[in-house]
Amino acid sequence: MIRFSHVFKAYPRGTLALRDVTFHIAKGEFAFLVGHSGAGKSTVLRLIYGQDLPSEGEVKVSGFDTRRIPAREIPRLRRRLGIVFQDFGLLEHRTAEENVAFALEVTGARRSTIGPKVTRVLTQVGLAGKTSAYPPELSGGEQQRVAIARALVNDPFVLLADEPTGNLDERATRGIFQLLRDINASGTAVLMATHDLDLVRSVQYRSIELEHGAIVFDSAADGNGGP
Amino acid sequence: MSLVMREALLGFRRAPVLSALSVTTIAFALFVVGLFSLVALNLQAALDRVGERVEVVMYLRRGTPVEATMLAMDDIQRFPEVARVEFVTEEEALLRAREELTEFRDIFDEFHDNPLPASLQVHLLPEHRNATTVAVVADRLRGFRFAEDVRYGGDWVENLDRLRGIAGGVGLLVGLAFAMTAVIIIGTTIRMTVLQRNREIQIMRLVGATDGFIRLPFLLEGALKGALGGLAAVGLNYAALMAVSRVLADSRFFTLLEAGAIVLFGTALGFLASAVAVRRHLRRV
To answer: What is the pTM of this model?
Structure first.
């Protein structure tokens, strides 16, 4: 699914964001990426969705080798991933429904198939009643649900979540986390970067801990993972 | 395609102020270019009208037989530089002199004999109304036996030539400068729109939109703004011309083709400016 082999990532000013990172996320797995801010969590995710390239080593995502992938193939890789951010990343002048539909429209999906799919995922995230609300009219938790619905609508094999609960209160955090667990239960792998250790300790999922760009702890010590 | 169109139009609805601002900027930039073109066109037209007066006059010896004159006219008519040849008899010459030189009318009346010679007035084709050709034609006319004198106002034609050269050169230079300024202003304006939607572009990329897909609505939007700006510029130019036409009689407006060219120029500029802005931007995010 996702495989990092001895990955180093240096940024232009010489800072080393990742040092010799090796891990593997299996199909349908739920894993946390933990560590302080600046530990390299976001860099790992950016390498997965092709925003950055590894300086050394190999990143393989569902058959794509991100070092050799031609730039024009990156959109195709991203359509197979679901990506969720701390700041939701919604388009403010589009309704919840339009935000989700947008992810299908850019793939050139047929108009007739878009409506039913959008309704399905919005129902799945518990927003069936708010499809025509604009992001500013929704609470933080609801906005994150829209973002998750958008990430799900292309049936990704993995959901990448970068601090998805970072901007939410405790109640909304629990709701979103439960939603991610439900999504995982239906077969989609989830890789969630977080520094909320209480959340990590509350469940028995695999956690990979980064410090100064290196993995210092992996609860699936053999590297093949699984809870 | 309909999605692209919708996205492009959405750009206007979402940022009406910025959109209106860019259309206005484009309109004024093109208005200045248009205004300058109008001045250049009218100046050229005025110079052409002056140019029509470039003629070579061959005065005939007294007593030249009419048949010989007619044969000469046929010959001259066949010169490649010549548009038409006009025969002015002695009587006509006097008549014209009386009409044109009213202050000397009394003097003309006192003449018993007509002192004015008959002449052939040779009008040249537009492309040959310059000092060099005029001199060549005049030389050739001097070759006729019965040519008493050949005149063409050499200094005057040379001055006209020089004026035309200056008008053309300055026109081209200033026109290019104005067009360049318009390109830069329009480019900057469109770039602002693209920057304003930076976040949106990032999100589009993350959900797997191809660069082509992201680019197209921007290009369309830019072209549309350019076209609107071009139309507005033509309208402004027309208003400006109407405003000064009371003072400047005979000034002409753009032909439909020229007006269309301004709109097309605006459209192309909007399109290209967007292409450059988005291209640069996509390389960075």
So the answer is: 0.70
